[in-house]
Amino acid sequence: MTTDTALHYLTLHELAARIKAKDVSPVEATQATLERIERLNPTLNAYITVMSEQALTGARIASDEIANGNYRGSLHGVPVGVKDLCSTKGVRTTAGSKILADWVPERDATVIRKLRQAGAIIVGKTHLHEWAFGTTGINDHFGTAHNAWDTDRVTGGSSSGSGTGVAAGLCYAALGSDTGGSIRIPASLCGVTGIKQTYGRVSLHGVVPLSWSLDHVGPMARSVLDCAIVLEAIAGRDPQDPSTVDMPVDAWSENLDEGLDGLRIAVPSYGFDGIEEDVATKVREAISALEGLGATIIEAGMPVLRDYWMAASQIVLSEAAAYHKENAEQRPEDFGESTLGRIQAGLDMKATDYIEASRLLAEARRGAADALFGHADLLALPATRTTAPTIDSVTNADPTIGLTVMSAPFDLTGQPAISVPCGLTEGGLPVGLQLVGRMFDERTVLRAAHVFQTQSGISMPHPPID
Fold first, then answer.
1. How far apart are CA 182 and CA 159, in angstroms?
2. 466 to each of 2, 166, 256, how far by Cα in Å?
3. How far apart are CA 437 and CA 373, in angstroms?
């Protein structure tokens, strides 16, 4: 049997190759993952619910299937986590809230069903900011998630457990959701890779909403290739979700090594306004590395991104308030103070502000946002403007709005955007490079991120936790 030490920091595709070759069984991988969760989850609080029994049962079935020649693909027998706002049949789905603390859904969300069809082993439901309505991972009902790089710091959010769980080897990939940056923010602060695909690529059916117009569900993992593998499994038109688009699911995990020659990357000055010096340095080094790999770099302004960010904030506040209005009025004591404050801010917002923001969203998604690119193929900018704040500092000053400045514009536009680690600051904290593509051009985003990750020479160690 391969030991936990040898297994837990493999990438998903490395583990998949070993499972396919029958060097490692799904049972061995799942047992090792559950043992690591048992050891580290009390420190990190990455999981709200650990599904040990169900995971081991699924792993035994997967092991038998593979032994009998019925291998389903790269997710077959691989342990993954899922954000605890994705409905799981027979397993509680809390959305990080007191109100849903004991809710046990009768059906799986579409993304969960697709993961199961691909043979993935779901080991647990990952921690999140209450109702996914925040970016720190500090939760009044389920405690605080801790960053694997420095447990005195936040993970980012709202996909807090998915970020620190992937970073610390408590799963090989995880689902997150992204409404203002909730995949890319924890990916950046925890030193993992996370992609928000084009709006409409992945079904939201069975996922507890934050903002219907902005919500995305997507993968987080330790490599770009791993994210592509998971995205292939969960993408596609869903008749139960009218927001999904009827477009073919590409084989995004294939031909990622094609190189960057001829690729044009625009760098918005917006991305460097008010950011930490260490973050700016690392992202600029990453952009230089992309240029060294063959890309052409174009400096740009794009001040409209600030308008997109502000409009995204207005939409999420308004739509979240509409969803939570009844409970907030009848059960205010069951909300955390900061979450209730955001709901109230949404209830107080003028209808005209929401309408104007929604018109900007419609305009952006009809082509205005893609037109910003000009002749460029991608945008490059920081995923977050700071590294992970300390938990103590967050208690005094909530950084949620500031953490979304670089990410939320692209929830409004709906364009695909990825955060890929681009090194550590002198203080040993991760920084994320964000690459943004045109609508439905996940391939270019993934290709550029993969080439950067595998050929730039900018290495990413594992976090100092064990």
1. 6
2. 18, 13, 32
3. 9
C-beta separation of 164 from 155 below 8 A: yes
Q: Is residue 20 annotated as a catalytic residue, yes or no?
A: no
| Structure tokens belonging to residue 423 | 């090194």
Domain residue ranges in the chain: 4-234, 265-455
- pTM attached to this predicted model: 0.97
Determine whether domain 4-234 maps to CATH 3.90.1300.10: yes
The residues near 310 (Cβ < 8 Å, ≥ 6 apart) are 357
> CATH says 265-455 is which class?
alpha beta
The CA distances from residue 210 to 82, 103, 133, in Å, are 17, 17, 7
Alpha-carbon distance of 134 to 58, in angstroms, equals 33
CA 21, chain centre distance (Å): 30
Cis check for the bond before 158: say yes or no (omega within 30 of 0): yes
pLDDT tens per residue across span 79-127? 999 999 999 999 999 999 999 999 999 999 999 999 999 999 999 999 9
Q: Which of 25, 63, 74, 83 is catalytic?
A: 83
Contacts of 63 (CB under 8 A, 6+ apart): 25, 26, 27, 77
158 catalytic per annotation = yes
- Whether 182 is catalytic is yes
Of the listed 63, 74, 158, 188, which one is catalytic? 158
**Residue 24, both tokens:** 């490692």
Catalytic residue among 87, 159, 182, 203: 182
